[in-house]
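Write out the 3D structure for:
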Amino acid sequence: MRNFILAVVGYFMFVGVVQLHADELVHKFKSPSFSGINSSSHYLTIENQEKTRRDAIRDDIDAAILAAKRAEENTTLAKFMRNLESRIFAQLSKQLVEQLFSGGGSTFGSFMIDGNLITYQQTTCVPASMACTEGEDVIIMTIVDPSGSETVIIIPIGTGTFAGTDGG
């Protein structure tokens, strides 16, 4: 019994000396979506992450498309076709120049290349409607693309000299 009394007295002495303090338990959400604290920056962060993912996916798709296009353009057949087309156009332009600038060639004509209508006419310059010298022989070349846009080129004939061709 003595121990019991000592224990009770010791307990009351201990409780008197040590003061216990307790605080209220408060629950706070960590997610700004629930708490509302810093929610705008949280939403912006999520939006930026989603945009970055979308951009990365789009860039990957674009890169794959470009790689496929480059691979298609670098085939032996594609290189051959580009070379052939270049030589055909060079030959056509040579024949056209010879026809336009030789004395016995035709004075007008037209042809189609890749959907573009090209017409030409050899005539005498009328400065009011053309940028040339009056009375000068010129070739008027008109190019109409598939959308209807028109380009006019005026080429003077027989003017100017080349260095070293003075006949001497």
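The first strand starts at residue 108 and ends at 113.
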